[in-house]
User: Which sequence fits this backbone?
């Protein structure tokens, strides 16, 4: 799975599951603020990430993720780990 | 001094109609909402008969976060409550500023619980279930969701009393307003409609097996009845102090004048004549009414051989042979946790529109039902006062009296 694949899949599940306008999912945008995530939303975000990208981020992982770009960087590493 | 308690809004999401207009038409026409659901047969049901209510799709109306904790009971009750609030001319801005409570009858969330457990079994990881399930799983799912969506700041609780849940919710709302503790309470009852909800009930062998003609299967009080038919949906009534309703200048649909109740303290499932008699007598005494003041009784009668017989005796003992009686379960099936609220709502619709809905399929009386005045065909009649009975497993009885509002 390439970074482009990860971005496309992420935008798709955010649009479908979180009912987010795909146009606001811009790499530089702040993930928590753009998605207006509360503590319950993070629980659901973990579920859709696991279902769509195959890995399960922890609360600690999210602490280091600020922008969508940060998430894509993190997701790329996780997907690469899974491929090994 | 006690406050007078009036009803200013009704909302219905029922197997005989979505909304008051459709329901009124069905009641007048004696239209049945019963179908044969073959998926229940495949699932292992003894009887695949059911009242059917489609699950509403609220995407676009409520946000993802509002919807995520809503299972069937909450979805149905949202639709009924929205309709009732609209009739009462109450919007969310008003509710945010004016304390309003909610007491809603519900006694299961079977489908939601099973879906959650299936997911945990499959994933072997509770953190992959998602955030909504806990709020769908709890019995208070309806009240927690509606209180959040409608910004309710008053009493907030779910009332579980088996098939009398909806009726007791009206009774408890009535008492709180009467005592001046609340100005308005949203009352009602919800019942999920899915195979998971009623499998264990079907297993008791008390559902009708007259599957050849589903619309003829629910036959309360008829000699040839052979069991009830499960059903569901939701019904909401807006109860309000008379002062509040008059101050807001809204139409008053009826006045709740009493709430009789009792417990049998006996068998888990068998009804009890003394308990029903006590509930009826308490309702009349509290309202300071004679039995002849009641123009119409909406019976609990579910179409079971034992239950209907006991109720016919209780009605005869208190009201004699003249008072008009019908069981709307002949059309709707048994709406269980919803029934006590929906049947008060159905009765108010009849009172407003001057007719008595028929106890359809009542063709041959039995030894008890022959003694009371069961209305088997729609009767045009002015109604000033109704009584609605609800009796539930564990011996919980409730009788609500509503009369036309007179200044």
Assistant:
């Amino acid at each position: 799975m390439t970074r482009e694949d990860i971005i496309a899949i992420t935008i798709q599940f955010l649009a479908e599951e979180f009912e987010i306008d795909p146009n606001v999912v811009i790499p530089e945008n702040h993930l928590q603020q753009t998605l207006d995530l509360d503590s319950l939303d993070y629980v659901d975000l973990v579920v859709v990430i696991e279902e769509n990208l195959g890995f399960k981020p922890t609360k600690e992982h999210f602490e280091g993720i600020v922008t969508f770009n940060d998430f894509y960087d993190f997701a790329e590493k996780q997907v690469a780990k899974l491929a090994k | 001094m006690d406050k007078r308690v009036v009803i200013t809004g009704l909302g219905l999401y029922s197997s005989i109609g979505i909304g008051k207009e459709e329901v009124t038409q069905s009641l007048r026409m004696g239209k049945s909402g019963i179908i044969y659901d073959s998926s229940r047969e495949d699932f292992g049901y003894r009887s695949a008969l059911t009242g059917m209510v489609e699950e509403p799709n609220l995407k676009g109306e409520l946000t993802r976060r509002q919807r995520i904790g809503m299972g069937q009971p909450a979805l149905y009750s949202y639709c009924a409550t929205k309709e009732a609030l609209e009739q009462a001319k109450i919007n969310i801005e008003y509710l945010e500023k004016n304390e309003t409570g909610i007491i809603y009858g519900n006694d299961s969330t079977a489908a939601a619980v099973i879906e959650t457990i299936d997911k945990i079994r499959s994933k072997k990881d509770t953190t992959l279930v998602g955030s909504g399930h806990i709020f769908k799983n709890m019995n208070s799912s309806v009240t927690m969701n509606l209180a959040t969506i409608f910004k309710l700041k008053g009493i907030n609780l779910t009332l579980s009393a088996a098939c009398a849940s909806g009726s007791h919710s009206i009774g408890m709302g009535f008492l709180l307003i009467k005592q001046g503790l609340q100005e308005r309470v949203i009352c009602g009852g919800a019942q999920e409609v899915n195979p998971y909800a009623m499998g264990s009930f079907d297993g008791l062998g008390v559902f009708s097996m007259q599957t050849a003609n589903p619309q003829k299967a629910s036959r309360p009080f008829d000699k040839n009845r052979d069991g009830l038919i499960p059903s569901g949906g939701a019904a909401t009534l807006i109860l309000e102090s008379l002062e509040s309703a008059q101050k807001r200048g809204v139409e008053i649909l009826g006045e709740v004048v009493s709430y009789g109740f009792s417990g049998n303290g006996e068998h888990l499932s068998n009804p009890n004549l003394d308990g029903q008699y006590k509930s009826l007598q308490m309702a009349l005494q509290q309202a300071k009414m004679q039995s002849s003041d009641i123009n119409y009784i909406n019976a609990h009668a579910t179409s079971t051989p034992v239950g209907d017989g006991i109720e016919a005796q209780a009605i005869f003992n208190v009201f004699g042979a003249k008072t008009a009686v019908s069981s709307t379960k002949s059309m709707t099936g048994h709406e269980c946790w919803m029934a006590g609220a929906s049947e008060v709502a159905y009765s108010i619709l009849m009172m407003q529109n001057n007719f008595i809905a028929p106890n359809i399929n009542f063709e041959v009386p039995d030894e008890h039902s022959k003694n009371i005045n069961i209305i088997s065909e729609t009767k045009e009649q002015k109604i000033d006062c109704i009584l609605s009975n609800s009796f539930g497993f564990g011996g919980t009885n409730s009788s609500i009296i509503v009369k036309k509002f007179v200044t």
